[in-house]
Amino acid sequence: MVFGLAFLTGPVLAGLMLKYFTWNSLFLINIPIVILVIIGSMKLLPANRSPDSKSIDWPGIVALGLFLSGFTIALNNLKTAGFWETVLSLSFYPFIIVGLIAFVFFLLIERNSEHPIVDTKLFYLKQVRIVGFLAFGTGLYQAAFVFVPGMTVMVFGVEPSTASFMLLPVVLAMAISSPISGRLIDRYGSRIIINIAFGLMAIGLTLLFAVPLTKPIYYFAGVMLGIGLSVLAGSSLRYIMLNEVSAGERASAQGVLTIMISFGQIIASALIGAFTAGYRDSIKGYQIVFAILTFITILLGVSSLRLKSRSQEKEMYTGK
Fold first, then answer.
1. Contact (CB, 8 A) for 243 and 317
2. Are 1 and 233 in contact (CB under 8 A)?
3. Which of 234, 19, 241 is nearest to 138 (CA)?
């Protein structure tokens, strides 16, 4: 919940800074946060190394870094205008090739590592595969929200700072519904709550591209998206992961979840940016993006129907 909420409150804080300061001041936001994190970590985190601590999987870390870096650079260089020329250019295909080769090496390293950063055996579990797919989709949603203020400026003709403030309903909906969704998951199970979340996401995304946008519709769509994201970026996916694996595998399982969300963010940030840039000064690019996200949401929603029911989750939990 904290990570997802932080991701969405960023544009709002940026809007506040832009209203009174220049864009350079945006980088000042992180300074007090970093100071507080350093102080808090010095006081709260254990200083002694555990005797059972495992060696760090440096080859895996390097391979993963090359994989993500290669894909990020390649996708950032992708342009919708002259798409195939870009794909065949030196600014794209060498990096995508490096990324693919690094990914293959990463899989080989992790399969043979004594202490892998990503335990590939986890993907033999159906629940983990589904949750990984849903986590990837969650990353797509989170990255897409970065571009919403730009669409808001174009549609309503407001200042960038005002457009950022117009995301407040999304942030408030997420902040209020996150703890509520956690309690509902405990009571009714993760599957039904996640199903509802994707239904709300589909409604919100459809409103953003299929109907003429007015401010009431925009705010209503934002609330639907905020509630849906509060479930997906909150406790639901982690709840499933923790129930599915043993205590010794939980750190690796959480790592898988984080990597899949981050990969979704990287893909969406680069592709949406390139796509909307191809439709400069036009709302059409944003509409196509949200239409594609709606289709992806339907696929994710259908996939979530294959998650375990509440009774199956209880059996799994009591069997451990």
1. yes
2. yes
3. 234
32 contacts: CB under 8 Å, gap ≥ 6: none
155, two tokens: 């549609």
Q: How far apart are CA 181 and CA 163, in angstroms?
A: 28
The CA–CA distances, whole Å, from 163 to 150, 158, 160, 180, 290 equal 8, 6, 5, 28, 18
For residue 84, CA distances in Å to 77, 81, 89, 278 come to: 12, 9, 8, 14
Q: Of 14-18, 24-28, 74-78, which one has max mean pLDDT?
A: 74-78
Structural class in CATH, domain 2-23+117-318? mainly alpha
Q: Identify the residue with better confidence: 103 or 6.
A: 103
* The token pair that represents 104 in the structure block: 């293959």
Which residues, at least 6 apart from 272, have a Cβ–Cβ distance to it below 8 Å?
143, 144, 147, 289
Q: How far lies 271's CA from each of 8, 265, 277, 284, in Å?
A: 19, 10, 10, 15
Q: Would the pTM count as exceeding 0.90? A: no
pLDDT tens across 19-66, in order? 777 767 777 777 888 898 899 888 887 766 656 566 778 898 999 999
Q: What secondary structure letter does DSSP report for 118?
A: S
Mean pLDDT along residues 131-156: 91
Q: How many CB atoms lie within 10 A of CB 253?
A: 24
Burial class (CB in 10 A: 0-12, 13-18, 19+), 55: exposed
Could you count the other beta carbons within 10 Å of the beta carbon of residue 172?
A: 13
Using only C-alpha atoms, the chain has a radius of gyration, in whole angstroms, of 21
**What mean pLDDT do residues 66-88 have?**
81
